[in-house]
Amino acid sequence: MKKAMALLLAMVTAMSFATTAMADTASTASDNDKEIIGIVLEKDEDGIALESGTLLTPGKEYKFPIYVKEEGNKTSPLTEDDLKSYNLRLEHEEGKSSLDSFKVVKEGDKNYLEVKVKAGWPTKQTEVSYRMKLVGRRAGMESVEALDINFLTGYEFASDSMVSSLGEDDYITADPNAPVFTKEQLERIASVNNYKKVTFANGSWTFQTSINDMDSINMLNNENAIKEIISAYPDNDFKFITFPAGTKFPGKGTLTVDVSDLEAGFKGNYYVYRYLNGKLTKLDASFVEEDETLVLETNTLGRFVITDKEIKDGSTVVEGMEPSSSETSSNSSSSENGSNNSGNSGKPNPETGVGASAAIATAVIAISGAALALSKKSR
User: Fold this and answer.
1) Residue 284, Cβ neighbours under 10 Å: how many?
2) Residue 320's pLDDT band (boundaries 50, 70, 90)?
3) pTM over 0.90
4) What is the distance between the alpha carbons of residues 116 and 102, in angstroms, rounded to a whole number?
5) How far apart are CA 49 and CA 67, in angstroms?
6) Quick check: 327 pLDDT over 50?
7) How far apart are the first and last CA of the chain?
8) How far apart are alpha carbons 51 and 59 in whole angstroms?
9) What does the mean pLDDT of the chain come to?
10) Which of 204, 258, 269, 259 is nearest to 235 (CA)?
């Protein structure tokens, strides 16, 4: 009789263990639940909001913090606990070809939408559309309102008002912040100048050329140093004029560079090179002493290197290259690496350190064993 009672007690204990494991699992899921009604993307560290009309620049990377919206319009960061209850999904609509990647990444304890725009110098803007969704992992969970993400990639167009205000022989400002001139704008400028050569200008340079019958052009420009060239020739002084798009014009134009700020050091010694595909090619250029300018003729803009000491024509300087971003899937759940697991099945029970399924299985085995022993005893 005592043995029978002991076996019954073991069965009761095993059942209690199983019930506790299941209750712990349900409690954990409940604790993770929020009354989430929507998704919100906060501004990035530069104050850029990812919304309709936002223009993201080619070659740049952006990170937008992901928040969730609760009743009463309360917002809070999307957490790992939230992702125990929901799968986060990205669905592509259009414009994916202008991106290197569009995915969710985790940094510290926060989740971000990371957008990497494909490098290049397009003359058109591309519309990009995605949808971000939180999908409940358990049956019966209320759906969360999806977030439609719409933005543009490319460069700003030159101001129509600026173009309309230009008169004959006026300099055309090539603003790096709005470097694209549309075909219609170029036609308007050419017409005002009676289809003669026109002059673009910015900073220390001017470029006089024909723009007749040209399609849209990107006149992005900068005077950034190329560190690999400086490192390769530490005894030289340099000035750099760069037009990344490398626009080609119908005929030869005249590039004039103001070098008045260099004359004290260069003392009339000027050598000009085109830097293309890692190669320095010497160009013919004239120093106009009375104007303190360098003048050269070309039909193609690009990367121009001005120095005070001659460099052997055809010298190679390999510029450091960042690894290109690989195309990543845009419709997977970043937090789960594309998995679509549901519930808390197989995950460690936070109270016991044992998976709930394992706990239940152990209890069932114990009950079966006790029942078998009791049966044999009764015989």
Assistant:
1) 9
2) confident
3) no
4) 7
5) 13
6) no
7) 13
8) 19
9) 82
10) 269
Amino acid at the residue 311: I
**Exposure string (b/e) for 206-216, b if CB count within 10 Å is 16 or more?**
bbbbbbbebee
The two counts, helices (H) then strands (E), for the chain are 7, 21
Q: Is the dihedral of CA 216, 195, 292, 315 positive or negative?
A: positive
- Min mean pLDDT across 50-54, 138-142, 320-324 is at 320-324
Lowest mean pLDDT among 87-101, 197-211, 244-258, 298-312: 87-101
Backbone dihedral angles phi then psi of residue 335, each to the nearest 5 degrees: -70, -25
Helix ranges (DSSP H) in the chain: 2-32, 82-85, 160-165, 183-192, 227-232, 263-266, 356-378
The distance of Cα 114 from the centroid of its chain, to the nearest Å, equals 5
User: Could you tell me whether strands 126-136 and 279-283 are parallel, antiparallel, or unpaired per DSSP bridges?
Assistant: unpaired
Assess contact for 63 and 45: CB atoms under 8 A: yes
Which residue in 133, 165, 153 sits closest to 36, CA to CA?
Answer: 133
